[in-house]
Amino acid sequence: MAITDWPVNERPRERLLEELRVNLFAQELKTPVPVSVRRLSKQWEGMRGG
User: How confident is the model at residue 6, as a pLDDT?
Assistant: First the structure.
């Protein structure tokens, strides 16, 4: 199953961090899913129940 087929809240955090690195440092490569610091922070807050 491709990472893009997973619901956002079930994607491994490590994979999303890798996508963020690509988004920040190699933008010409593009990411398969939209990712940003804000999105990651929001997801992690939800995982912590905050």
Answer: 62
- Residues spanned by the domain of 26: 8-48
Q: How many CA atoms lie within 13 A of 50 on its CB side?
A: 6
Please indicate, yes or no, if residue 2 is contained in any of the structural domains.
no
Determine the Cα–Cα distance for residues 28 and 35; give it in Å rounded to an integer: 15
31 token code pair: 């990411």
Q: How many angstroms separate the CA atoms of 10 and 29, rounded? A: 23
How much is the pTM? Answer: 0.59
Q: Provide the number of structural domains found in the chain.
A: 1
- CB-based burial label for 19 (10 Å; 0-12, 13-18, 19+): buried
